[in-house]
Write the structure tokens for this entry.
Amino acid sequence: MLELHRGEAEAIALALETKADHLLIDERDGRLMARQLGLSLTGVLGVLLREKNETNQSNQARNRRAQEQSAFFHCSRCRKRHPQKSQRVGPAVTPAPPRLVLPINSL
């Protein structure tokens, strides 16, 4: 038998009454009851993870826009992916020297 505290019971009742999109509840018995009643729920950890993911996506989009608007590309991989943009004139950049790779048996 599930025993809910008064606050949990009221939160579930309010979510049902208002047809809420999600119910924020962490207690095990409250979550079980909410699921049985067909409510979509999340906990504090779910809210924090969602915010972290949205922040990361926002930062990635901002970084992508900044790169697209820059005067030149810093790496050859970017130039290969966006050849039309790599023709832009930018500051003089000295290319890195080629890496020397030796076979293992020659050491």
